[in-house]
Amino acid sequence: MQHSNSNSNQIFINDSLPHNFLAEKIILSCLLINTEALEMTLGTLPIEAFYFKNHQEIYRAITFMYKNKISIDIVTLVTFLQDNGLLQKVGGLKVLIELISQFPNLIYLKEYLSLVEDKFIRRSLITLGYDLINSSYTTNISLESILKELENKLFHLDNKMKIQKLINNTELLDNIFFELKTKSLNPILYGLPSGFYDLDSLTQGFQRSDLIIIAGRPSMGKTALGLNIAANIIKSSKLPVLFFSLEMSKEQILYRLLSMETKINQMRLKSGKLYQNDWDKLNKMIKIFSKLPFFIDDTFNLSIQDIKTKIKKIIFEQNKIGLIIIDYIQLMHNSNVKTKNRVQELSEITRSLKTLAREFNTPVIALSQLSRNVENRIDQKPILSDLRESGSIEQDADLVILLYRNKSSMINLSDDQSTQLIIAKQRNGPTGTVKLKFDEKSTKFFNF
Questions:
Q1: For the domain bounded by 197-447, which CATH number is listed?
Q2: Would you say 297 and 248 are in contact if contact means Cβ atoms under 8 Å apart?
Q3: Bond preceding residue 328 cis, omega within 30 of 0
Q4: Spatial separation of the C-alpha atoms in residues 13 and 207, rounded to whole Å
Q5: What is the pTM (predicted TM-score) of this model?
Q6: Per-domain residue ranges for the chain?
Q7: Which of 96, 185, 211, 217 could form a disulfide with 354, with the two C-beta atoms 3.0–4.6 Å apart?
């Protein structure tokens, strides 16, 4: 079998590779007689999904005509191919007449699309296999680079299999009606529960594909709240949680997590001055968390591309992702933005985080510092405008939570301090304020 690794999307002209001639032919026939077939197919199959070169050219022509609002039937297609010197390339008029002589059953179009897509994915895997073999022989390429490239290509292949199909309004409305009916019979949160019922009541949990900003001045408890939410979600859902810590080391985060979950004073925990019941609680908590898919990354100066790569790795290993937390935005950088303007760079970062949430269909919680302006006011409660110096956070976020504890409470360290969670923005819900109790010694938040 002849093979070239110059183009990983190359279509092999070899009958031994997976393909389905009849399914390809029937799909093209459907496109010439039905508008709904056009919408369904163009939203599903790329040109390379067709194995035969003449089928690719016909599909490419139909795609171009559809995008340019040219009516599509056998006459207009033949005319378009003739005018562009492509008629003989597709096999001539005989091939096109054979297409309209078919009488395809549109009821089975989805099955035909699945057959062609399946063969396309299999050919892509074969190409990937040859690329991997050739790369392995090239000794000046590091193993790390080869494996990283393989991981990226496998991830993209998996995405191709999960490509969303175009659906019409009737189907969409039916789906929404069914969803509402299910909720009415079994009232549950729409998103991931934070573990704090007043907050969940306002937000209906953290929604998939949402960018959630938790912001506050230093020492307000941003990291603590992020860790509390991570622990609550992973214990209730068992979904993988990925915590990016750009300020603290993995060890520091784990000490805080253990202190939070066992309610053992952080100072005693770090010094090792523990009582027997402390050891019992510690042992129990370590056993619980060692079985949960909680991942901490403490890479310094992280970029969006670094985050994407590590998320893909978790999905590749775990087959899913539940929540992503980044602590915190101002410590990130964007290698793709060539500017000395930090505000512009942060704007691009928040935009990329929103894109990240949509791409992986998961909530992304990003912690953020607030402007110093809040400390120069008599009323030091943060407001949404305090985010403005941090790029386009306010614009890109779906949910903004501002943390506030008054200074007298912070100086007088009582066992339980009141922290206000100000819902300053919520794209699809109400704003308001939620109060939580905060234990300074273990950095544990509690419902009131």
A1: 3.40.50.300
A2: no
A3: yes
A4: 46
A5: 0.64
A6: 21-161, 197-447
A7: 211
C-alpha span between 58 and 171 (Å, rounded): 29
What proportions of the chain, in percent to the nearest 5, are helix, strand and coil?
55, 15, 35
pLDDT at res. 228: 92
pLDDT in tens, 142-176: 887 777 777 777 777 766 555 444 444 555 566 66
Write the pLDDT tens digit of every residue in 185-241: 655 667 888 888 888 888 888 988 899 999 888 888 889 999 999 999 998 888 899
Domain 21-161 architecture: Orthogonal Bundle (1.10)
Highest mean pLDDT (candidates 98-112, 376-390, 417-431): 417-431
Pair of tokens at residue 389: 């110096």
Q: Which two tokens stand for residue 192?
A: 């991931």
**Interior CA angle at 304 toward 248 and 202, to 5°?**
75
Q: Are 28 and 59 in contact (CB under 8 A)?
A: yes
DSSP string, 385-419: GGGGGGSSHHHH-SEEEEEE--HHHHHS--SSEEE
Q: Which helix (H) or strand (E) holds 309?
A: helix 304-318
From start to end of 183-313, where are the E strands?
211-216, 241-245, 294-297
